[in-house]
Amino acid sequence: MRTRDTLVPGPVNNGAFGALIALLLASPVLAAPAAVVKVELYEWKVELEPAVVRPGPVRFEIVNKGAIPHGFEVEGHGVEKEIAQVAAGKTATLAASLPAGTFETYCPIGNGSHKMLGMRAKLEVVAAKPAAATEMDHEMAMGGDADAGSSPKTMRVTGGGAVIQILPGPFPFADSAAAVIAERPADQKADLEKKAHLGPYSNNVAPVTGTIAITATDRGATGDSVDGTATFMTQDGARWKLVMDRVQTRDIPFNPRFGGVIMGLYYHGASHVHTPLVPTIQSSLALWAYGHLYRDNAPVTDSALVHVMLLSRTRREGDWALSCWDCSRNPVEELQLQVTPPPGSAPFPAPGGFLFLNWEKSSGETVAAKD
Predict the structure, then answer these.
(1) Greatest pairwise CA separation for the chain in angstroms
(2) Pairing between strand 120-125 and 52-53?
(3) Of 303, 300, 325, which Cα lies nearest the Cα of 314?
(4) Which residues contact 327 (CB under 8 A, 6 or more apart)?
(5) 363-367 and 355-359 beta bridge pairing
(6) Which of 1, 34, 94, 256 is most deeply buried (CB count within 10 A of its CB)?
(7) Is residue 271 within 8 Å of residue 109, measured between CB atoms?
(8) What is the pLDDT of residue 221?
(9) How many beta carbons lie within 10 A of that of residue 172, not counting itself?
């Protein structure tokens, strides 16, 4: 009868076993492939595709489809990585390793001003991508949640202190102006060079008198409102009255998709938007409106273009000259009013054809917004 063969272990070759373990440890481990997220930057939004990925390495492929420079940053759960700036029409990539959780992506330009204008989106990092995203999931991914600052905000602004009229003259920071103009597109340079030599941001000022009071509501992308009146006497003795009753939301030249009412905006200078020959400031209110304008009680136009800002102080007391190139740390107390003719209309009967006034000790009060 055959007996069952028994495997008897032989002596262990410790040298061979150790060599095998060393070989296994030295073998390369294949890394998980990076998820690819396509990022498109515009004025003023960030689009992600997809907006939901799995944990691990992520490569953001970024294209700036806007008309001005933008940046891209991803932040959350201890991760904060950014590309500070991507020129218009250019591309860039950003690599990050992301754990599970919700991440905020946004444009960091202007110390948050582009983000506040809508350039933000949510990225969800989950262990398993859901089979189908709901409409609410899509809205959250595109930044449409309550934290996006979409709730209405109303501010009452009152002008106070010295009132000055700013008259045409050379821009006082010539070196800074030259550097700014050199970086702008060719279609803007001629306009900026003209303003640098004889423009509305000058030290040619005159003390005048006047009052201004405005109530403005920021309801997000649509539905903003403004109600305000300004009365003032200019250097030439003319008496003006401006009644603001509707916002202006059309594009402003060289300032894509600006308009309406915006609150809490770090703006100008570092933001790569709006008039570049302006010191960097902090603004608690910026609005664009249409106004009914009267001179010595006679109607001038029912469609005056109005721009108002409650901003950090830019001018020094006494001679009211522009006192800083970066004024963002000064107290927010200067109220600027700019009034220009509607497109295709004759210049106003005022120096330079425009009206530009500052109330130097002004204030704004946030109140409950009306539905």
Answers:
(1) 131
(2) parallel
(3) 325
(4) 279, 280, 281, 282, 311, 312, 313, 314
(5) unpaired
(6) 94
(7) yes
(8) 64
(9) 16
